[in-house]
Specification:
InterPro entries: Leu-rich_rpt (IPR001611), LRR_dom_sf (IPR032675). Residues 1-46 are annotated as: Disordered. The protein has helices at residues 19-24, 52-59, 180-187, 204-217, 248-282; strands at 48-49, 69-71, 77-79, 91-93, 113-115, 135-137, 160-162, 193-194, 197-198. By secondary structure, it is α/β, with parallel strands linked by helices. The protein has a domain at 48-211: Alpha-Beta Horseshoe (Leucine-rich repeat, LRR (right-handed beta-alpha superhelix)), CATH 3.80.10.10. Helix 3 links the parallel strand 7 (160-162) and strand 8 (193-194). The longest helix is centred in the last third of the chain and has 35 residues, at 248-282. It is elongated, with a radius of gyration of 50 Å. The termini are far apart.
Length: 293
């Protein structure tokens, strides 16, 4: 046994754990930390902006000036960006986006066909500079008054305009006015087709006839007196069954028919008797027969 020396045994000082060690907890090896809650990701952009890369990838062209036809339907576009640099563009589809203005399109002097249906447009002023525009589809936007179409009056080639599309259930607030059709025709007299219906040229008479019929059938379309109440065509009791009445002519016809039928029966009996006599006359005479040589 080792004798006790009487000296106090010194213990190593206790070092307090660091805050990071306290978070580790027991049983975690060095260098590993418990998973902390991740922060939320930054919100993505609310829409898409037109860029040169987007235009080149959608058209397959290397230069923006070489693009003639471009389809940008349903891409969530909110800004047309550099679209105005496509100076040779002739056909453009921007339907199904979230556009609120068409500023860059003012540079597209060669644009002939434009579809901006199903957007959020409240004006079409930039299109007044598209001097080659022939066909415009602006159904499904927020155009409220015919005056917002005044910018199109200076386009000599504009012949086709659509502000309402019943099949696609797209319209504009101005289409709800009863005078919408007449106001558009007065403002843009050069139009040949409005909302898919021909208003001038060959075939326009048929559409005009249909519109006149619709107007005449619409309730309250005419201030005149209401239609007279329908009256029966025939007198009361006309369709009731008439009582049967005896007729001497009918009785005489029946009597003659019965007489003719009786004569037929008599002739049939006489014919049967004649046939029976002929059969007896032609039958063999018996077992003994005499032959005359």
């Amino acid at each position: 046994m080792v004798p006790f020396s009487g000296r106090a045994v010194s213990r190593p000082p206790v070092v307090p754990a660091s805050p990071s060690q306290n978070r580790q907890g027991p049983g975690l090896p060095d260098g590993l930390h418990p998973m902390e809650p991740q922060g939320e990701k930054p919100a993505e952009a609310d829409g898409v902006r037109v860029t040169p890369q987007l235009l080149k990838s959608r058209s397959g062209e290397f230069a923006l000036e070489s693009i003639l036809l471009l389809k940008l339907r349903g891409l969530g576009l909110v800004d047309l960006g550099c679209l105005g640099e496509c100076l040779g563009l002739e056909w453009l589809d921007l339907s199904g986006n979230a556009l609120t203005q068409l500023g860059p399109l003012a540079c597209l002097r060669q644009l002939a066909v434009l579809n901006v249906a199903d957007n959020r447009l409240t004006g079409l002023e930039p299109l007044g500079a598209c001097e080659s525009l022939q066909s415009l589809n602006a159904a499904g936007n927020l155009l409220a008054t015919p005056g917002q179409l005044q910018c199109l009056a200076g386009l000599p080639g504009l012949e086709y305009l659509r502000l309402r599309d019943p099949l696609a259930r797209l319209s504009n607030p101005l289409c709800a006015s009863p005078s919408y059709w007449a106001a558009v025709r007065e403002l843009l007299p050069g139009l040949k087709v409005i909302d898919g219906e021909r208003v001038s040229g060959r075939g326009s008479e048929f559409y005009q006839l249909c519109r006149d019929l619709d107007s005449s059938l619409r309730p309250g379309s005419s201030p005149g007196p209401g239609a007279a109440e329908a009256q029966p065509w025939v007198e009361p009791g006309y369709w009731e069954s008439w009582p049967t009445r005896s007729s001497s002519i009918l009785e005489e016809a029946c009597r003659q028919f019965e007489h003719a039928l009786q004569e037929c029966h008599d002739l049939d009996r006489q014919a049967n008797d004649s046939l029976a006599q002929a059969e007896r006359a032609l039958s063999p005479a018996g077992t003994t027969s005499s032959f005359v040589f």
